[in-house]
Amino acid sequence: MAHWLARIMAAQDRWARPFGDFNHRWISALFRPIRPIRDFLSGVWLGHPLHGAATDLPIGTVVLTVVLDLMNQRAAADVALAVTILAMLGAAVTGAADYADTDGTARVRATLHSTLMVVALAVLAVSLGLRAGNPADRTLPVALSIIAALIVTAGAYVGGDVVYVLGNMVSRHAFRGAGTKWIKLDTGDVTDLATLPESTPTKVRAGINDLVLVRVGSAVHAMHAVCSHAGGPLAEGTVVDGCLQCPWHASRFRLADGRVVHGPAVYDQPAYQIRPADGGGYEVRRAAS
Hints:
Shape: elongated
Number of helices: 8
Largest sheet: 6 strands, antiparallel, barrel
Strand order of the largest sheet: 1-2-3-4-9-10
Strand content: 15-25%
């Protein structure tokens, strides 16, 4: 079943890719000058993608609408339908904030997901309009609500594919342990971290992990070199206002502790403690979050 559904989704790439590229341009332009609003809608303040939480309500209420319709609870069904439309609009706004920083295949799938949800929203709006005045025959509006619920289900499946298969808005460090051991730091030709260029990211290695070091004055800060948002190379980033800014989507992480300051990242960046090692050189340990 999964392979069959995957083939159906892939078959939509022909139109979804150019349509997604077009939408991405104007949505990115819309959110670029209102970064604090984008951060709020992405869920930076929550430490969790807001869209993922916002989608639960309309999925639940559209199912409730269908159940109430089938039970002929007209007033309750109409209220549930109105709530569904409002909740879908809210989820769409949060989804657009994430979409502005979504690339590649994930953007193509997100385009299919959002298109299905917009179609479902339109069908629900027509259903609500037909219910105005409480007509005696509600066959058509009820049928439309059922059709919309099926489209929402399909859209939710595609949305799950964006997250669980393609890893969009998933922490790139979800499976990294907190770390309790000190690990030898491979700094290459650099023997004294005090000689690192000021406010210039430098890539180093600790075991299997790539880290990025930034010296600010006498302090040397270390964090994982892979951005928690989409895996961007932080060693190629820039230092801005005491933060390391990712070169891909401009997420900012505080140098002192890796905390997210600006999105689209919603997860903190793993930060590391540094100390001189016995016998020379340095060693690191992941700092407690």
